[in-house]
From TrEMBL:
Globally modulates RNA abundance by binding to RNase E (Rne) and regulating its endonucleolytic activity. Can modulate Rne action in a substrate-dependent manner by altering the composition of the degradosome. It is found in: Cytoplasm. Residues 115-141 have a biased composition (Acidic residues). The keyword Iron does not apply. Residues 9-110 form the Regulator of ribonuclease activity B domain. GO terms for cellular component: cytoplasm. Belongs to the RraB family. This is Regulator of ribonuclease activity B. The keyword Cytoplasm applies. One of its GO terms (molecular function) is enzyme binding. The lineage of its organism: Bacteria, Pseudomonadati, Pseudomonadota, Gammaproteobacteria, Pasteurellales. Residues 109-141 are annotated as: Disordered. Interacts with the C-terminal region of Rne. Keywords: Cytoplasm.
Length: 141
């Protein structure tokens, strides 16, 4: 079971550090909730459930731990304002799914957003997610 108060404190600290470093407070941020599981099939079911809730999913990767065991990792991704309440709400929504699947929540991360950049890292349409790239479309139905 995860302690939401501890997660909220970590979220507040991450946001504070980003803003202190000069990241754009008004930008939309890619929020990546990191998850891991030893069983690929169970991880896949978890991410399909998250996808049905409206999240995007990064491609799962196989990682060898120091002890030689294999785990599968991926990110459950959204694009939102850098707001601790929004991130905490996402954690409240995702953690029951993660626990039910027997997966491990490894926290969340994002990227620095330069307020002085003229470049749009999201491409010409300003959208991070490519609507044509629907890996789980068949699973959603």
């Amino acid at each position: 079971m995860y302690d939401l108060n501890t997660l909220k404190q970590e979220t507040d600290k991450i946001i504070e550090n980003l803003l202190k470093d000069g990241s754009d407070p008004d930008a939309l941020y890619i929020i990546e909730h990191h998850v891991a599981h030893r069983d690929f099939d169970k991880l896949e079911k978890l991410v399909v459930d998250a996808y049905r809730l409206g999240y995007e999913i990064s491609e799962a990767e196989e990682v060898e731990e120091e002890n030689g065991k294999i785990i599968f990792v991926c990110d459950i991704v959204s694009e939102i304002k850098l707001d601790a309440n929004l991130i905490t709400a996402q954690q409240k929504e995702l953690l029951p799914l993660i626990e039910k699947a027997g997966a491990e929540y490894e926290g969340w991360g994002t990227y620095f957003e330069d307020p002085n950049s003229d470049e749009d890292e999201y491409g010409d349409d300003g959208e991070f997610f490519d609507e044509d790239d629907d890996d789980f479309e068949d699973e959603r139905r």
